[in-house]
Design goal:
alpha+beta; two-stranded antiparallel ribbon; 2 helices; 6 strands; 22% helix
C-alpha cells in the first residue's frame, strides 16, 4: 500500500479529531555512554518566520495499526 494512502486529507483529519482520539507521540532521542549516562540529546532546530531559531521535540501521529516504536523510527 502506498504510504501516502494511509494519511487523512486536511478535511479528513479535522473531522476525525472532532469525533475520536488520535495518538500522537513526542520523543526525546538520547545517546548514552557505556555506563548508561546520557551524553547527547536530539532536538529539531526550526527557523521561525521572524528569523529566530527554536528547538522542538521530535513528534508526530501514529498511523492506524502502527506500533509506537515504528512511528518513532519513521
Amino acid at each position: 500500500m502506498d504510504e501516502r494512502a494511509k494519511w487523512l486529507s486536511a478535511d479528513g483529519i479535522k473531522d476525525a479529531r472532532a469525533q475520536l482520539p488520535i495518538l500522537y507521540v513526542e520523543a526525546l532521542p538520547v545517546r548514552t555512554n557505556a555506563a548508561g549516562k546520557v551524553v547527547e540529546i536530539g532536538l529539531l532546530l526550526r527557523a521561525m518566520p521572524d528569523g529566530s531559531i527554536s528547538r522542538a521535540l521530535v513528534s508526530g501521529r501514529v498511523l492506524h495499526g502502527e506500533l509506537v516504536r515504528d512511528a518513532l523510527i519513521r
